[in-house]
Task: structure prediction
Amino acid sequence: MNITHFFASSVGKKAIMSLTGAMLGLFLLTHLAGNISMFFGRESFIAYAEHLHSLGSLIHLFEFGLLIVFILHVYYALMLFFENRKARPVRYAVDRSSGGSTYASKTMPYTGAFIFVFIFVHLMNFHFTDHSISIADIVRNNLQNPLLSFYYVASVFALGMHTSHGFWSLFQTMGINHPRYDNFLQQGAIVISVIGAAIYSSFPAFTYLFKSFLL
Result:
């Protein structure tokens, strides 16, 4: 099988999904680590943001690469979703959870769509905005809105559910699985995703609940 046939095959598409998903997951962890600077005070958070901006064209190059990775991930996710529906037009009448299907895996298309909208909202509120205002004030102005704050918390938990199955699928696609430690890997993916979602949700929660946060 040549490389063209490989990437056109179901296995090849899943491999691209896994690779791009792993890259997006790595970005999420890096982004999370940077945003934790909020808890060290306003000046620390602003210094972190200014350091990113000081990278100049490198940060734009990184954003462009991230956009390509994201487009590939969404494109191949849609291809696999519609191919699976075409191959199995009649839904099973029984619960197949015993065969490895989980609530997170069943809802992947819906959490993926939810995250897609959330990214658009996030970019409009924090990226394509007036940067003459400090990033600390942009965060406070947005996340002290109760509706937006609640939407952020709900969105990061949808993201956590999505990544919990994504990490597990990555292990399977890469052949990192074995009946002896599959349960450990699957539970580990869930724990990491829940912890990540909890930390991400703490940013809107603290901003909304503690009015002096980031002042």
